[in-house]
Design a protein that fits this description.
By secondary structure, the chain is α/β, with parallel strands linked by helices. It contains five helices and four strands; from the N terminus they run H-E-H-H-E-H-E-H-E.
Length: about 130
């Protein structure tokens, strides 16, 4: 899941972990914004780390991967490498409804050759 994901998407990931559907939450590190570097805003990764702390997700059930990821294709390359190294068979991708088909297509393209099943889960927003 991208560190820049909407709060609803992030909460879905936490819920999947709580119910046992996902033994671990993987968060990719997105590109640092200029306002983060200037100390004006809190970086997305730090926000997500705080949310995981607040949700009582233990350090053993979370992992932050990648650096300065800007595009979905970059994110999936990092996820593919992590999944191959950790012998993962299935990955759940909670995502916003609009990009669900694109995420599913790219995830299948990157992960299926390794025998990894990607499952996209559309998460409705507040509107």
């Amino acid at each position: 899941m991208s560190a820049g994901a909407r709060p609803e998407v992030f909460q879905q990931a936490v819920e999947l972990w709580r119910t046992g559907a996902a033994p671990q939450i993987i968060v990719t590190r997105c590109e640092t914004r200029p306002t983060d570097r200037a100390g004006i805003t809190t970086p997305f990764v730090e926000q997500r780390r705080r949310w995981l702390d607040e949700a009582d997700v233990p350090a053993s059930a979370r992992e932050f991967i990648g650096e300065e990821i800007r595009l979905l294709s970059q994110e999936l390359t990092v996820v593919r490498s992590w999944a191959a190294t950790n012998q993962v068979r299935r990955l759940l991708f909670p995502t916003e409804p609009f990009p669900t088909r694109r995420v599913a297509w790219l995830a299948r393209r990157q992960l299926a050759p390794l025998g990894i099943e990607p499952v996209t889960i559309p998460v409705p927003g507040p509107h």
